[in-house]
Structure formats: structure tokens, C-alpha cells
Design a protein that fits this description.
about 325 residues, 9 strands
């Protein structure tokens, strides 16, 4: 055989094979193959005739060079047939992790293997015959095209409820305004409309998550500022933060009414008539619930002691 090693196209993602599906090169996991790049004949594991080298992607094609084991009589025989042009076919053995349907924009759809692992590649006489390509699932059980279609259907069922309802409709009629909001035009297919709805649903969920984070950050800042100015203690910070997450404006107004750096008892003495030192938890809750809430934030130790004493009193 001549010094140069023949190159074979292992996959062309731009072409739909005779089974009706395509294989996306971007979904390739080559780790296992790189560790053991066996070159087989006709997918027979007892017929290792060499190894593959220089696996690469060129445009839409996955290409590798065949390095035949010339010390093996069978391999040397096959290498000669390749060199003389009698054998030109190549086929891959692969594990399929994920597959889904894609529309071509003309009302047609085809299967695309989007996540897969390359196990081996073989020299074959007829690449497109029923036994040429070898498909396996994650459990290394051989798959058929029907199994791929079932996997694709499961993938389809994982769409959101809105998209599934959309897919079940035989005809979708949208106004120009609605199409514009979906960033589509009047030529949009059902699949494109459903994809747009799915995208908007994801954007909505992302926005809600972002808003939740912002609320948490704003509440944290309000509580930290209240602690900094002595309006509440560190122990009351979590309670105020929880209040601010639920109703920020109400929490902000509440903090503004709190006096800075002074015990609650001193504030009460100046603003309320009479002595409250003998008030128990029940009295506070009945006569001045707002003052009790301030105590919970500013003097949580005193608040907890009053509550505990009152609970013990009720048990007697």
C-alpha cells in the first residue's frame, strides 16, 4: 500500500441518510473513541484491521484516516481493495443519547441525532444497507430506527404544556401583530410558532427568576442599612428581610418609623403614657401590637422572653 493513509468520511451532517435521520457533528463525544480508535471490518469486533487517525471535522463532514495493520493478512487484503478502489464505504458504530425532530421549513421534518458517542468505525462494502450502521442506546443495547423515533417522541413530550397544546392544533392562525411579537412573519410554520412560544416561555421564567434575585438583594440591602443605623439588631435582620421580600414598600415605611440607636423602652417612655414594665406578652399583643412588632425587631431577646413567660403562664 502507498505511504499516504486513505481518508474516509465517517459522517456528513448535511445529508439525510437512507434511514431518514441526520447526525450532528457538534453532538459528538469522542473520548472513548480517542482512547481506542479501532478500525473494524463490517462492524465485526473480532475483525480489527487497524486504527483510525486524525479524526477531524471539515465543513459538514467528520473525517478520519485509516491506518491498516499490514501484518494482519485480512487487514492487508482489505487495504489493497481500498487502495485499488474496490472498497470505498465507511460506517460508524455509535451510542445515541438524544434525538429530536427538526423541520426544514418546507413542511418536512427529519430526525437529528444531537448527542452521541462514537464507538468505532468500519470499512463496509455497502454503507447504506440495513446492517451497515450500528446504533446503541446508553445501556449498549442495539437500537433500531423505530427506537430512535420513540426517543424523539419522548423528547417532544418534554416540551412545556403550552408547546404541546400548540403542536396538537392542526392549523394555527395568528394576526400580524401576534406574529411580530413572536419575531415571525406570515410564512412561519407550526413548528416555528411553537418554538417561538417555547422561547417566550423560557424568557418569562428567566425574568421571574431574575426578579426574585433582585427582590432578595433589595431586601438584604434594606435590612443591612437598618442594622447599620441601629434601628434593628442583627437578630432582627432576617425577619425584616423576609418582610421586605413580600412587601418592600411596607417594610421601608416601617423602618422609617423606627428610631435609631435607642432601646425600645426609652422610646415608649417618651411617646406613651404610663409604665409598661409590668405588661406581659398578652397585654402587649392586645394594647399595642405595633409596639410588640417593633420589640421583635429591635429587642428580640426581650420579645422572646416575654413570649416564653406568657406561654408558661398559660399552661398553669
Amino acid at each position: 500500500m502507498s505511504g499516504s493513509k486513505p481518508s474516509f468520511v465517517l459522517n456528513d451532517e448535511s445529508r439525510t441518510n437512507s434511514y431518514g435521520f441526520r447526525i450532528a457533528n457538534a453532538g459528538l463525544n469522542r473520548n472513548r473513541f480517542d482512547a481506542n480508535p479501532v478500525l473494524l471490518f463490517d462492524h465485526r469486533t473480532n475483525s480489527v484491521i487497524g486504527r483510525w487517525e486524525n479524526l477531524r471535522i471539515e465543513g459538514s463532514k467528520l473525517i478520519a484516516d485509516a491506518d491498516f495493520d499490514m501484518n494482519d493478512p485480512e487487514a492487508a487484503k482489505i487495504a489493497a481493495k481500498v487502495e485499488n478502489g474496490y472498497l470505498k464505504g465507511c460506517s460508524i458504530g455509535m451510542i445515541i443519547n438524544d434525538v429530536h425532530y427538526v423541520n426544514d421549513g418546507n413542511g418536512n421534518r427529519y430526525l437529528v441525532v444531537s448527542d452521541w458517542e462514537l464507538l468505532e468505525a468500519s470499512i463496509v462494502a455497502i454503507p447504506s444497507n440495513a446492517a451497515a450502521i450500528k446504533l446503541y442506546n446508553k445501556e449498549m443495547k442495539e437500537m433500531k430506527v423505530e427506537d430512535m423515533m420513540q426517543l424523539a417522541a419522548q423528547h417532544q413530550n418534554s416540551f412545556s404544556d403550552n408547546t404541546k397544546k400548540c403542536m396538537m392544533k392542526k392549523q394555527i392562525t395568528l394576526t400580524a401583530t401576534m406574529l411580530a411579537l413572536l419575531l415571525l412573519d406570515e410564512t412561519a410554520t407550526e413548528q416555528e410558532i411553537c418554538n417561538a412560544i417555547e422561547r417566550l416561555n423560557k424568557e418569562r421564567n428567566d425574568a421571574l427568576n431574575e426578579l426574585s434575585v433582585l427582590k432578595e438583594q433589595r431586601a438584604e440591602a434594606l435590612a443591612a442599612e437598618a442594622v447599620k443605623h441601629g434601628k434593628i439588631t442583627e437578630l432582627g435582620k432576617a425577619t425584616l428581610k423576609e418582610m421586605a421580600v413580600k412587601d418592600y414598600e411596607a417594610a421601608k415605611k416601617f423602618v422609617a418609623q423606627l428610631s435609631s440607636r435607642q432601646p425600645l423602652s426609652a422610646s415608649i417612655a417618651r411617646t406613651q403614657a404610663g409604665n409598661r414594665e409590668d405588661w406581659d406578652f398578652g397585654k402587649w399583643r392586645k394594647e399595642d401590637p405595633e409596639g410588640l412588632e417593633k420589640m421583635r425587631l429591635q429587642e428580640p431577646e426581650r420579645y422572646e422572653q416575654l413570649r416564653t413567660d406568657y406561654a408558661a403562664k398559660l399552661k398553669k
